[in-house]
């Protein structure tokens, strides 16, 4: 600060010196009138060039000085301008700036710009930031336009203008983008009540909603709408008509609820689509579009999931398992500032306190052998129990699926028998997770880790269920395929006989076409699969909503209102309010999405249903959480990246890709329904398009590319690339670990050094005291005395030693004094200056000073 | 611009908005929302001049975002630029605060202000008293949740052991930033959203 003051004084004197020239300059400018405006500008530029060095300095200083200094600087600048402009008035014939000056000026402008763009990174107060910003902006504006010459000048100005516009546009666009993100407030409200872990579920839900909207746009825009607008209308052909036998009940609600009747023969399902190569006046290739959309749904989802995973991974690589700062982190980073609800805050207080206590206890007895064994045993036990549960539920589903196959062959079956599989699966999904949670209480993990385990287990459960379901479905499909062959012949035969008969009746007239409702048709296994998935999704939605309604809302109402007339406290006691079940909800979402991915190829309308579901569940669950749930007892922060969720999603995506890919690649499409009917395999549509719609050479190229001789090397190349990249990544990781280790070592070293220094410090200080003309101690003897008393306590090790020594030896100090003396003396004799002190041996000193090792010695001396 | 702001009434002038966007980590909506929330804190007759008036601490702490925060008083004092040090907040102070607590603020800015918040006596270092106060803030007001003296001693000892690199018995700014910058969830927890 002294420096600044000095400088400002200098500046003042400087300005005084310049004052005559300033006056002169002022006059001149007045005289010149208008022209001065343009010229003065140029001159000021010239003025700038001279004191650039100073200016840079002052710019650097800006960062440190406060507003006052700022004003001073302004003055200084003004002075400079004036002084140099007066100088330049002597040689004003110089028209243009030299290259160097220009470059310098440019550099300055760039610097100012940089300052402007990085200003927000500085922890200044707004007032200061504003003043600095305005000044910098004024500077840039003033000199920016003057840069460049002639044509270049114009171009430069134009470029600058465009850059400004671009920045503004980007900012506006960002603003717009953030405005488009829905439910910020809702999520924030939940976050403030329940902490970030519950909010992370809603953020995940929102993300899913976004992804599904894109999928919905793809499917609706490219498949459903073209078909509805340009395809053949309903009732024009067999696949688009309800069969005669079903027509009577096709509009009944119970039939529609099962997705039969009119819904089955609508654009929501695969079977409705025609295999016509092009439709409408646009010549839209619908089968091709259907296939490509089916693929791109998976492609897009994969891309999005992997991209967000990679981004999360990037964010979270910074650190991780650094065990150096357990306590400090607990102290400095454990409060979640988003908490805005007193109740949650109380829970948070409690959890922080327990975590403090726990870590203190852990620190105190870090290796408790028995407890570890017990804990290990409990964890193994818990895992065994859970595996038993999983096996049991797997068997149960297998059993039910088997039973349902026998049911399906019977004629008169009730509602329960028809829906047994779904009911059992929903019940398992409802009761197993809480069971797992109860068992997981044995393990006593940190809630964040516990959540992951819980998620993994429920995931295994759901996966087992899903795949059993799929296997049952595959059986069904195979049955249908066998049936189809039969029907194919019948249809063929029927049509033939119909034509024959009509040909016999009216020989010349063209026969009236057979009514599409009467044509016998195949079972269309694709639509069946689609319907199964839609049903499963809808029943899942219903079960979820009913669980929330009963398990959370009714329970909350009961607890809240019956509490007035009940024997015990319901709110604090047994039923209490429900906590929000993060793991269950996340997994529900993930599995639901898997179902959507699997089903969307055979039921294009499924994504629409899912979008509706996500939309409603956002509002419904937000409401349910806010109205009837209580914050978790141990409020914990969500881990920074929700890569775990994403990992589950990726796994599910992959698993749901498998069956779809299998059916596309290896099952023949139905002969009388869907966009691929009449083809051997669904992917034939690509070959057909290439052969018919592209020039010949493209087909040739394609056939070359499809050659195994080319594909195998390509795969090999990819494998090699993966191997190489993997190796590189590993090497980087190793280097990282190495660097980390180095840093740690360095830190330890530093710590040790400082420790040593701290222990030796008193000695050094003694030396200093002795060597210096002892001004401190003489002028304030009392202080010195205090110091002397304190000095043994300066460092912890010294203090401990001292205390121990005092405790040990104080009773018989006199006798023991002698043996204690030598070590200090040995040390003290080392520095040459201290030899003088040798004649004062320890024995002569008062008792109290003996045990305190060294510090007492030198300090006291000057007083003697 | 200061005068313009005052004159233009209850909407934030455009140039001020642009400047604030340039100077803070907030975007347009957030600034406008902040402005709205801030003027709601003021009595009706002062709302026209929201940029130039200060909200007293007691009123400011009624914001739901700060209501449950154990550091509410500290936050007020750190971000207030009041001359009389009463913790009253102007709109610009409020923006400073939101910017430091925003999602996109850099770790340096966040740790700078976090240090100021934890530095209860404002002497530029975290000493034992500061740490003790900090622990008390974090463990809440309830008697049963308080740490005992021995536990407190142990805790502070451990913390100093970990992060007091130069062994002077206190944590200075650079030590604090060193510790905090390596924490996985400091940036995500040091966050307030309106």
3D structure, described in words:
The complex is a heterodimer of chains A (864) and B (194). By secondary structure, chain A is an all-alpha fold. Chain A folds into 3 domains: 99-180, no CATH class; 184-500 and 515-675, no CATH class; 707-751. Helices cover 73% and strands 0% of the residues of chain A. Chain A has a two-stranded parallel ribbon. In chain A, helix 17 crosses helix 18 and helix 18 (525-562) runs antiparallel to helix 19 (582-599). Chain A is globular and about 130 Å long. The two termini of chain A are 41 Å apart. Mean pLDDT of chain A is 74; it is low at 1-73, 77-95 and 774-864. Chain B is mostly helical and 194 residues long. Chain B folds into 2 domains: 14-101, Recoverin, domain 1, CATH 1.10.238.10; 107-190, Recoverin, domain 1. Chain B is 56% helix and 4% strand. Chain B has helices spanning 2-7, 14-23, 28-41, 57-60, 64-67, 72-79, 91-101, 107-118, 128-139, 149-163, 173-181, 186-189, and strands at residues 54-55, 89-90, 125-126, 171-172. The longest helix of chain B is centred in the C-terminal third of the chain and has 15 residues, at 149-163. The model of chain B is unreliable at 1-9 (pLDDT under 50). At the A-B interface, helix 6, helix 7, helix 8, helix 12 and helix 13 of A face helix 2, helix 5, helix 7, helix 8 and helix 9 of B.
Indicate the low-confidence ranges of chain B by residue numbers. 1-9
CATH homologous superfamily grouping of the largest domain in chain B: EF-hand
Average pLDDT score of chain B: 82
Helix content of chain A: over 70%
CATH architecture of the largest domain in chain B: Orthogonal Bundle
């Amino acid at each position: 600060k002294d420096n600044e003051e000095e400088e400002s004084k200098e500046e003042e004197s400087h300005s005084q010196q310049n004052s005559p020239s300033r006056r002169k300059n002022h006059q001149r400018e007045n005289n010149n009138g208008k022209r001065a405006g343009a010229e003065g500008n140029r001159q000021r530029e010239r003025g700038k060039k001279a004191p650039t060095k100073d200016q840079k300095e002052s710019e650097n200083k800006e960062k440190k000085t406060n507003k006052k200094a700022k004003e001073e600087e302004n003055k200084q600048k003004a002075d400079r301008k004036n002084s140099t402009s007066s100088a330049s008035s002597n040689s004003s014939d110089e028209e243009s700036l030299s290259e160097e000056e220009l470059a310098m000026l440019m550099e300055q402008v760039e610097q100012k710009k940089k300052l402007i763009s990085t200003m927000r990174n500085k922890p200044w107060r707004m007032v200061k930031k504003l003043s600095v910003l305005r000044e910098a902006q004024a500077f840039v504006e003033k000199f920016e336009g003057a840069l460049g010459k002639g044509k270049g000048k114009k171009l430069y100005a134009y470029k600058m203008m465009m850059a400004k516009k671009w920045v503004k546009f980007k900012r506006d666009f960002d603003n717009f983008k953030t405005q488009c993100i829905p439910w910020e407030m809702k999520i924030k409200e939940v976050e403030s009540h329940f902490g970030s872990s519950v909010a992370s579920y809603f953020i995940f839900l929102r993300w899913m909603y976004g992804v599904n909207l894109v999928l919905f746009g793809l499917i609706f825009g490219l498949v459903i709408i073209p078909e509805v607008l340009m395809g053949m209308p309903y009732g024009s052909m067999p696949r688009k008509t309800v069969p005669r036998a079903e027509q009577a009940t096709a509009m009944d609600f119970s039939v529609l609820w099962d997705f039969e009747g009119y819904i089955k023969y609508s654009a929501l399902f695969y079977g409705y689509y025609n295999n016509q190569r092009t439709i409408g006046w646009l010549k839209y290739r619908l089968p091709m579009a259907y296939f490509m959309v089916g693929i791109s749904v998976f492609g897009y989802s994969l891309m999005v999931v992997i991209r967000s995973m990679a981004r999360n991974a990037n964010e979270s690589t910074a650190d991780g398992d650094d065990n150096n700062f357990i306590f400090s982190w607990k102290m400095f980073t454990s409060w979640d500032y988003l908490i805005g609800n007193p109740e949650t805050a109380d829970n948070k207080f409690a959890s922080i306190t327990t975590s403090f206590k726990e870590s203190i206890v852990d620190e105190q007895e870090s290796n408790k052998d028995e407890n570890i064994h017990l804990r290990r045993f409990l964890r193994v036990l818990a895992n065994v129990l859970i595996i038993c549960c999983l096996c049991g539920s797997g068997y149960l589903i297998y059993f039910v699926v088997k039973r349902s196959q026998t049911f399906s062959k019977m004629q008169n079956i009730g509602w329960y028998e028809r829906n047994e599989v779904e009911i059992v699966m929903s019940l398992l999904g409802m009761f197993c997770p809480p069971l797992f949670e109860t068992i997981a209480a044995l393990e006593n993990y940190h809630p964040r880790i516990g959540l992951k385990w819980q998620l993994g287990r429920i995931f295994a459960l759901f996966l087992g269920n899903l795949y059993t379901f799929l296997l049952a479905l595959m059986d069904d499909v195979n049955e249908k395929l066998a049936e189809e062959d039969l029907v194919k012949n019948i249809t063929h035969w029927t049509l033939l006989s119909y034509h024959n008969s009509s040909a016999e009746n009216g020989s010349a007239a063209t026969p009236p076409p057979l009514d599409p409702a009467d044509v016998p048709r195949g079972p269309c296994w694709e639509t069946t699969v689609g319907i199964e998935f839609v049903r499963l999704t809808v029943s899942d939605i219903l079960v979820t909503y009913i669980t929330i309604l009963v398990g959370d809302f009714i329970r909350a109402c009961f607890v809240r209102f019956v509490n007035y007339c009940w024997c015990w406290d319901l709110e604090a006691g047994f039923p209490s309010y429900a906590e929000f079940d993060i793991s269950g909800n996340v997994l529900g979402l993930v599995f639901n999405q898997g179902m959507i991915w699997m089903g969307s190829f055979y039921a294009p309308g499924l994504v629409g249903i899912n979008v509706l579901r996500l939309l409603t569940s956002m509002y419904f669950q937000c409401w349910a959480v806010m109205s009837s749930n209580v914050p978790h007892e141990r409020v914990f922060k969500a881990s920074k990246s929700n890569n775990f969720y994403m990992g589950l999603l990726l796994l599910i995506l992959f698993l749901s890709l498998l069956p779809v890919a299998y059916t596309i690649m290896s099952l023949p499409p139905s002969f009388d329904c869907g966009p691929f009917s009449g083809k051997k395999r669904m992917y034939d549509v690509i070959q057909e398009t290439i052969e018919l719609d592209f020039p010949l050479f493209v087909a040739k190229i394609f056939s070359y590319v499809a050659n195994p001789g080319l594909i195998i090397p390509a795969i090999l190349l990819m494998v090699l690339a993966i191997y190489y990249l993997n190796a590189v990544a590993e090497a980087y990781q190793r280097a990282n670990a190495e660097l980390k280790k180095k840093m740690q070592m360095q830190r330890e070293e530093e710590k040790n050094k400082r420790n040593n220094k701290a222990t030796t410090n008193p000695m050094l200080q003694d030396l200093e005291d002795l060597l210096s003309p002892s001004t401190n101690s003489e002028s304030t003897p009392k202080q010195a005395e205090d110091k002397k008393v304190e000095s043994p306590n300066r460092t912890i090790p010294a203090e401990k030693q001292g205390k121990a020594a005092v405790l040990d030896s104080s009773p018989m100090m006199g006798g023991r004094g002698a043996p204690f003396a030598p070590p200090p003396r040995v040390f003290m004799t080392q520095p040459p200056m201290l030899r003088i002190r040798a004649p004062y041996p320890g024995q002569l000193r008062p008792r109290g000073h003996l045990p305190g090792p060294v510090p007492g010695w030198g300090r006291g001396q000057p007083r003697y | 611009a200061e005068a313009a702001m005052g004159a233009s009434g209850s909407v934030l002038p455009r140039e001020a908005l642009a400047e604030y966007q340039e100077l803070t980590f907030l975007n347009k909506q957030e600034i406008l929302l902040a402005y709205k929330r801030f003027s709601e804190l003021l009595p009706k007759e002062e709302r026209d001049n929201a940029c130039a008036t200060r909200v007293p601490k007691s009123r400011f702490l009624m914001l739901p975002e700060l209501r449950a925060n154990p550091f509410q008083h500290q936050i007020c004092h750190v971000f207030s630029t009041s001359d009389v040090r009463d913790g009253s907040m102007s709109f610009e102070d409020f923006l400073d605060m939101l910017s430091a607590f925003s999602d996109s603020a850099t770790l340096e800015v966040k740790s700078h202000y976090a240090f100021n918040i934890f530095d209860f006596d404002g002497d530029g270092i975290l000493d034992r008293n500061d740490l003790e106060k900090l622990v008390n803030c974090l463990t809440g007001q309830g008697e049963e949740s308080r740490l005992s003296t021995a536990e407190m001693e142990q805790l502070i000892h451990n913390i100093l052991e970990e992060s007091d690199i130069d062994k002077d018995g206190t944590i200075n700014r650079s030590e604090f930033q060193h510790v905090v910058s390596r924490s996985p969830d400091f940036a995500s927890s040091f966050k307030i959203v309106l």
